[in-house]
Every structure is written in C-alpha cells, then in structure tokens.
C-alpha cells in the first residue's frame, strides 16, 4: 500500500459531493453542489426534491471530481459512500452511483456512517491523538462521541429531541430569517449588547444528553408574548439569548465528557461547528483546561465527500469492506 486513492460520494441530505482523497489525508478534489437555493423557498429541505436534485448532479460531480483530481478511474483503490443516516431517497442516489462505479471498476466498496465522516474531517487537517472526544453538531445531529482508538465510536450523549442546527433553523424561521438560519442567528448574536434570558436544559446531573426543543419553545413564546404586547423583541438580543443557552450547554458537556474519558483532544465537527460563538467559547474553555481543541476549516465542517473518504480510509486499512448489496440506511447506528 502507501498511495491509496479513494473516491467518495456523499448525498445524505442537500449537498451532492464527490471527493478523491489520497491515504485518507490528502484531498485531491472535493466538489460540492449545494441545493440550498432550491430548498430555501420552502423554508427547509424537501426530501423528494433533494433526491431529484442528487440524480441531476451526481454524474456531473463525479466527472468534475475526477477531472479536478487529475486522475484516471483506473488509479482508484476503492469507492466509498455515505450509507446513512440521512434521507433515504437522497442516500439511495449516492449508493447506486457508488455501487455502479465499484462494480464497473472491479474495486471494493466501502459504506461509511455520516457521523464518522464528520469526525474524520478533522484527520484531513490535523494529527489525531487517542483517546479523543468529538462533539458533532449539525442540522440532523447533536452527539458526543468517545473515540478510544481509530475507527471505534461510542456515543455517550445525544439530543433527545431537536438537533442543535435544527433548533437554530426553527428559531431563525420564527424570526423571519432565511433558511438555513444558523449563520444569521450567529451573526445577530455577536452584534447584541444584551441577551433575552433563556432556560438551559442540563437534564440529569450525570447525563451527556441534550435537549433543545424547550429552548426553542421558550424563544417562540417570547416572540409571541412580545407580539401580544404590541412590541417587538430586538432580534439581536433574542439571538444572543438563544445562542448563549445552546453554547453554554454544548461547551459544558463537551468539556465534562473530555475530562471523564481522559481525552487528549476534543474534536468539533458538523455544520454548527461554523458557529463563531461556539468556537470562541470552546477555545476559551479548552485553553483553561489545557485541552487540545481541533476544528476543521468551514468547508470541511458542512457536508462534503472528502470527510467520507477520510473515514473510509480507516475501514480500508482495517479490511472492513462492504458487499455490493449494501443498502442505504436512513437510520444507522454508529
Ligand atoms: O453538517 P451540515 O451541513 O448538514 C447536516 O448534516 O445537517 O449542517 C447544517 C446545519 C444547519 O442547521 C445550519 O443552520 C447550521 O448547520 N449552521 C450553523 C452555522 N452555520 C451552519 N448554525 C449555527 N451557527 C452557524 N454559524
Ligand atoms: Zn452532516
């Protein structure tokens, strides 16, 4: 071995992405076609439309990735694909494309868990040191994962209702902000001088789980009460109240988990890792605690296929290959 080229396909939600990565670390190409503009007018991702858009772009993305990487298909060692979790119709498009390629090229297929991909996005830019703890926060996920060794994942906490990004998007929508609302709420929160007080869901003292739906309801109630009083809440103060609550809980639990599991590094991953408030608060706490914090660049935080190739490389090394009857799994445990 030595120079293994893996081509990966990611279509779990609203990004069609294809990447070529060498030895799990060196990105030769990572092309992403986002459907956000299409879904924007509906205020969220419409699954049926997502599937159709993936069908339209997956072949184009494949051609573009191979061209950008400057490789021939015959140079590839394996084809990786996001197997789940995600929207079933969307996942299917990637799975069929990947199987077809693996079959035509007579090379192995490697099914990858989407969250493993988000975590291993960090390996494209950082050297990982185990044991580590990863905080995965996106539109579909909020998980604290203990990673004792390469490719070994133990979920130690997860959301009991809304994902963090989902709560951001719903609160933003109630405030009349465009989809996806996370970045807008983040920006407004940073402009605010004061915060509308909001509750924090700590749950049981020992729990690493999260809950954001109560907070979301509190924000919606505050908006409605202000409306009834004939007054409007300042969007910046409201955003800050919401964001402070989300960030406090995420940071506190991530730090506590890192200490409890003797983590050498805390990894941040997923679309919400782009949040400036979260990054700053985590960086400050990690510095206090003398804990190494790894955050991928923004382009690798949101859904992309390079992270899938990075996670697939570990499976390749371990000989964990998939069969050609691999199924798209909308619900899949890590
Ligand atoms: O990982 P991702 O691209 O897709 C999923 O797998 O869900 O994450 C998208 C999510 C959206 O909910 C979006 O609002 C959120 O990440 N997001 C943010 C920020 N940037 C993106 N949330 C808060 N602050 C941000 N700056
Ligand atoms: Zn994702």
UniProtKB/TrEMBL annotation:
Tell me the GO molecular function terms. Answer: iron ion binding; tRNA N(6)-L-threonylcarbamoyladenine synthase activity
Q: Which reaction does it catalyse?
A: L-threonylcarbamoyladenylate + adenosine(37) in tRNA = N(6)-L-threonylcarbamoyladenosine(37) in tRNA + AMP + H(+)
> Which PROSITE patterns does the entry link to?
GLYCOPROTEASE
Principal location: cytoplasm
**SUPFAM superfamilies reported for this sequence:** Actin-like ATPase domain (SSF53067)
- Protein EC: 2.3.1.234
> Which cofactors, if any, are listed as required?
Fe(2+)
Entry cofactor note text?
Binds 1 Fe(2+) ion per subunit.
- Keywords, alphabetical: Acyltransferase, Cytoplasm, Iron, Metal-binding, Transferase, tRNA processing
UniProt superkingdom: Bacteria
Domain Gcp-like, which positions? 26-309
Binding of Fe cation: at which residues? 114, 118, 303
The protein's matches in InterPro entries, at most eight in alphabetical order, are given as: ATPase_NBD, Gcp-like_dom, KAE1/TsaD, Peptidase_M22_CS, TsaD
Q: Name one GO cellular component term.
A: cytoplasm
Give the UniProt subcellular location, in the record's own words. Answer: Cytoplasm
Positions binding substrate in this chain are: 136-140, 169, 182, 186, 275
- One GO BP annotation here? tRNA threonylcarbamoyladenosine modification
User: HAMAP family recorded for this chain?
Assistant: TsaD
Q: Which PANTHER family match?
A: TRNA N6-ADENOSINE THREONYLCARBAMOYLTRANSFERASE (PTHR11735), TRNA N6-ADENOSINE THREONYLCARBAMOYLTRANSFERASE, MITOCHONDRIAL (PTHR11735:SF6)
Q: Which family does it belong to?
A: Belongs to the KAE1 / TsaD family.
Reported function: Required for the formation of a threonylcarbamoyl group on adenosine at position 37 (t(6)A37) in tRNAs that read codons beginning with adenine. Is involved in the transfer of the threonylcarbamoyl moiety of threonylcarbamoyl-AMP (TC-AMP) to the N6 group of A37, together with TsaE and TsaB. TsaD likely plays a direct catalytic role in this reaction.
In Swiss-Prot or TrEMBL terms, this protein is called tRNA N6-adenosine threonylcarbamoyltransferase
User: Which organism's genome codes for this protein?
Assistant: Paenibacillus ginsengarvi
């Amino acid at each position: 071995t030595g120079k293994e080229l893996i081509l990966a396909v990611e279509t779990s939600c609203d990004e069609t992405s294809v990447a070529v990565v060498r030895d799990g670390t060196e990105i030769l190409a990572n092309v992403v076609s986002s459907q956000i503009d299409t879904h924007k007018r509906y205020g969220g991702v419409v699954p049926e439309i997502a599937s159709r858009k993936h069908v339209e772009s997956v072949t184009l993305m494949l051609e573009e990735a191979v061209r950008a990487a400057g490789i021939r298909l015959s140079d590839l060692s394996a084809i990786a694909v996001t197997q789940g979790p995600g929207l079933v119709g969307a996942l299917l498009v990637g799975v069929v494309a990947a199987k077809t390629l693996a079959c035509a090229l007579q090379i192995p297929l490697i099914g990858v868990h989407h969250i493993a991909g988000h975590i291993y996005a960090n390996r494209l830019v950082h050297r990982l040191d185990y044991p580590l703890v990863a905080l995965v926060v996106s539109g579909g996920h909020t998980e604290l994962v203990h990673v004792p060794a390469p490719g070994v994942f133990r979920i130690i906490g997860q959301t009991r209702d809304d994902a963090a990004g989902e709560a951001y998007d719903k609160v933003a929508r109630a405030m009349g902000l465009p989809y996806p609302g996370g970045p807008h709420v983040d920006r407004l929160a940073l402009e605010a001088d004061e915060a509308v007080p909001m509750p924090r869901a700590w749950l049981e003292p020992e729990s690493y789980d999260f809950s954001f739906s109560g907070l979301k309801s509190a924000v919606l109630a505050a908006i409605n009460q202000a409306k009834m009083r004939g007054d409007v809440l300042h969007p910046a103060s409201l955003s800050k109240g919401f964001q402070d609550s989300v960030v406090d809980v995420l940071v506190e639990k991530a730090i506590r988990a890192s200490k409890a599991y003797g983590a050498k590094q805390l990894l941040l991953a997923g679309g919400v890792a782009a949040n400036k408030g979260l990054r700053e608060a985590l960086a400050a706490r990690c510095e206090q605690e003398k804990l190494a914090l790894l955050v991928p660049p923004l382009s690798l935080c949101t859904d992309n296929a390079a992270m899938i190739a990075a996670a697939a490389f570990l499976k390749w090394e371990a000989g964990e290959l998939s069969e050609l009857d691999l199924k798209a799994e909308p619900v899949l445990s890590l």
